[in-house]
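I'm stuck. Please check this protein.
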Amino acid sequence: MNSKDNRLNEWFVPNFGPLGFRIFVGMLFLPYTGMCVSFAVLGSLVSAQMFWDRLCAIAAIYALGLGLGAHAADSLGSKEVRPWGNYFSAKQLWLIIVLSLSAAYIIGAYYIVHYAPLLGVIALLEGFFVFAYNFEVFRGFFHNDIWFSVSWGALPVFAGYIIQTNHFEIVPVGLSVITGSLSYIHIRISRKYKVRKKVRQSDSRLEKQERALKAISLSTIGLTLVIIVLKMVIG
């Protein structure tokens, strides 16, 4: 792995285990994937009637679709230097993309057919963004912070709500504005952090940016887990 491409010192990458394991875990961007999954789960949690199997299904869909599929596509489709170097070949990355997205869409198709046909609209939109954003198609028109916050910040809330209700209502709109804004703030900080990290600037600003990224992602995940527990206890 070229030292220029090395992101193994990122805070979310384990500092133990074989190189391949560390790169694979790093490629998943687990805290950021956790944020997106949390947004989808929160969308389910705000529905009046909630089914736990559907909540688990939407969490699995986004874990597979974003955590594996979209991040592998990002590593493959980046117009800049590959974020994780060349440890994984293009064939291996394509295999991850195909298998993870296939699994996500198989799960989604079951719930679309049996319970929530409207979820198909979100599935089409998210599938579009996986390729339009990560492969920077249409001259990179969709590869920006606004579309990032829409695709992985706002839409997951609607997906979580729709899989429970098969309705598009005003209830999740306010929540999607919050999650979309949170994603926008997060990606803006992340880009600045990545630039400073790349040029090896270790200073107070870099530390503040890293603390902010940790706070946003981990508090989102933590809050979601707390709400889940309360939902299970209170009913």
Q: What stands out?
A: DSSP finds nine helices and no strands in the chain. The CA atoms of residues 50 and 164 lie 6 Å apart. The chain has one domain: 12-221. The chain has a mean pLDDT of 92.
